[in-house]
Amino acid sequence: MNRWILVPLCLILALAEPARAYLDPGSGSMMLQLVLAGFAGFFMVVKLFWTRLLCRLGFRKKDGVQ
Question: Which end of the chain, N or C, is less packed with Cβ atoms under 10 Å?
Fold first, then answer.
């Protein structure tokens, strides 16, 4: 790593004050919901593109097309 980046980064980390933050139990539940929603969204996008790919390759017919 470049020395010009490493030295200021070490100084910033050494001089940082500890955060005085409170995470209540609701915060953990919200983070879990965000992660689960992200996974659900990712798999939905994959499913849509997978179906389109199979249709283009001729393995599957388009729905509603006669």
Answer: C
Within the chain, residue ranges assigned H as helices are 3-15, 25-57
Residue 53 counted as domain residue: yes
Assess if residue 51 is contained within a domain. Answer: yes
Q: How far apart are CA 34 and CA 30, in angstroms?
A: 6
For the chain, the domain total comes to: 1
List the structure tokens of 63: 């729905």
pTM of the shown model: 0.50
Decide: helix, strand or coil at residue 48. helix
